[in-house]
Amino acid sequence: MTGLAKEDIASGDPRAAFLYEGDKRLLPCMGRQPNPQYPHTERASKDWLEANELVTSGGDPNLVLGHRLPSFTDRFTPEQIENCDILFHRFPNRDARTTVAAFDAASGTIFLADQSLTAETNRNKNKFILVNLLPQMRKGQWGFIDKGATVDIYFWPYDPASVNVNIEYSRRSVCIEGHGQSHLAVRSIICERTSAAGHRTNGLYAVTFGNSARPPYSTDVTLENCWIRDTYRDGSSYAPILARYVNKFKVLNSTVSDAINQFGIQCAGPFWNKHAGAVEGCVMDRNIVLRSDQTPIRLFGLENFIVSRNRFIDCGQAAHANKGNIYQGGHNGLWWHNYWWACAGYWTFQRSSAQFFGFNFIHGDTSDTNGRAVEDQNFDRTSKIKNLSPATGQGINGDCYFLNNILVPWRNAAAFSNSLILGSKSENAINFAVMNNIVNGASFVTERLIRDGVKTNVYTNGKPFDVTDRVLPFSDVYADVTRGDIAVRKDSRVLLAPSTAIDTLPGSDGRISLQEKFPDFDGFGVDISGKPIDLAKPPIGPARDLTDLERLDPIWIVRPEIEGAPIVGGTVKVDDGYVMALGHAPRSYQWYLADDVYDPQDAWTPIDGATSAAYAPAAKDLGKYLACRTSMMGVHASSLMTAPVAESFPIAEPVSLLNPRAVDARKFAAGYWFETDTFTASDKPLLVLVSTLNSVLGEPARLSVTIGTKGRENGTGEKLTINPETALRTRNQLTLATILEPGTGPRTLQVKSDDNWSNIHLTVLEVDGLDSVAVGPVSGGSKPTHLSPTIETSKANTLVLYAVSRYDGNEDPITWDGGKTLIEEPTGRGHPSNTLRLAYAYELAASPGTYSKTASWLAPQGAATSFAIELRSA
Q1: Alpha-carbon separation of residue 763 from 818, 822, 836 (angstroms)
Q2: Cβ neighbours of 581 (radius 10 Å)
Q3: C-alpha dist (Å) from residue 612 to 107, 389, 617, 703
Q4: For residue 536, is it left (φ>0), alpha (ψ between -120 and 50) or beta?
Q5: Can you tell me the distance from the alpha carbon of 349 to that of 332, in angstroms, rounded to the nearest whole number?
Q6: pLDDT one-digit tens code per residue, 530-545
Q7: Which pick of 156, 417, 467, 533 has the fewest CB atoms within 10 Å?
């Protein structure tokens, strides 16, 4: 479509054209990872590209100027990249959107139009995505070129016959505009395909009610039995259901689905000390929010509100998304009988008080490894009344209650014990009671707990708080947390755990009644499944029968990964991934071939008979890309290798040349040269790992390593390149050294440190084809029981080596959850307080991406450190 007037497009912006082919939405063409897990949205940062370098101002603040990824951008012209929007991460852990100001082809740098935002320092700091990259267009996608007053729109339909008869674009930004209306009911409507671009405060949302910030407020507005679906905003925005300053606003029995770049439902009032006070009496009951990019429900400045019997499903793929929140002056809120299913983030409240959170099903944060499901984020800022909750600001009771919830761990959070965090930042007016919950560990500030308010909770991790609490391993409660089966076991002891009556509750001002607190709520007599219960004799958790919770559709949170190298005669295998479900069934498999790594899934060709978890590439597959679709209970996840099938792998698996390794538990003075036994080199690249126990705490020692014939003068021979990245925890150090041409014949290594040291351990690995290395971030802990070294690889067909060093203590073996173990042994024979233990493992990394393995042991020993290393060929 050429010469389309912008004024005919929703909000007058081509980004909001939001094309459809019949009932199929066409996606914007984007520069992102092949085979994205969340193709319907540009906000899922796990599908974004990873820049080699984040270009910043280097000042204070350190501003983001641009991104550099020549391996991707070299395929495009400056004009093509300058036609794009770019989304990127900025401080504090949020994403931002701007246009590309310029692309410098010589340096491969994408420069941002808006260079006013501070750079982030977390693991997402280098991630970005290009939206409207026309050469990346594939079937089912669209893009545009802005011509000023007009726009040219390009699209690739699923069906060529659709070109002239079946393509629609959005002209409408708002479906229902109820500004200023009171005593209004909207029932049984479908609102779809509204779209808008521009600043989020422009009011262009699918369904809007209410006034501006000043009273009088609207009142008594109901949205019931409605479906708000397929709505789009171009950046971080509000919600397709947006109510501002409406007393008694109700959303009942309604569905919000596919809210792109938006929250699901947003209801906002003023802060408690502004205007006429907070908005009163809002109710969100029996709704479904499915696939909102941001938090499914976001509330501001509300008092005496109810959020009940809702289903929040597969939400929160954007940065900084939460499961739900109440901000800026919320008070006296009931959160009851809600399911959060496969949603990222955690439930939180800020500057809010008197929150009653009960009989909910909620799981740990699936976007990180910290395990949080619920966290209080109030702050005691007494000097700024605008930052205080209503309880503190008005001198009223702010007691909060967490009753009969189940806080389910997920795979990467199973070993963490902080699913419920209360009181760490709270004001003095906010205190907590915690009863009858199933939690994966908790963290409480004792001074913020109501007397006799923490009773009969079941912990699947961590240390219990009260003598009435019980500890049960999560494997004794759930079927299989590591793979995603979070059904409660029928033989679990949690079903017999004692509970505490909650018909009246202890409080800072005396006992209170839930029914008296929320007289309009009719659900206190039933559990989350709708079965009758007596609050004087409640169950543990949200249901009388925890084995009979609602079976929501399974959702793949972590897609299966294909392990191995795609070489003819070899074998690749797909792992289990993580599919969240209450009950699992056997998985089924189908392997495919793709001609191009960016081909959509419907262009892949199935391989006849390839229906097991493993596949052996054949000569006919050369040059093509392997993919596998894993299915369980009718729900699919597709995995793709981004390196084509080749005749051989360009880098060999590591071979240990020094067997046994050089191990010595003696103490050596700084400057002493330690020499290994002889090994035979064949002029192939060597990678050397040196483990030492230093004398100076927290300061990395500087090492020198040489190679040559045995008995040579100390410090002579060829010097190895010492990688500047060392893994250090207290005095426990791992150092990496390499040499590409070590010579041929008998050789020894000599090592010197500038610190006094002991417990030296040297591993010499021959890696044929090695050209360079990259070291991932160091991870460690004081007394951990596991570490997960991680690296983002930037090249195809590499190896990833994982290394862990730990104070040994009791000779507690270190085991890996995957890969091939190279070495697992102590570094010497010293006293348990200064003996170290090492474990090295590796895996083939055929496709660029994130690689991680977890090393674990039985009991806390001492400080441990780790890193992952990418071994690259030329």
Answers
A1: 21, 10, 14
A2: 24
A3: 45, 56, 13, 49
A4: alpha
A5: 12
A6: 999 999 999 999 999 9
A7: 467
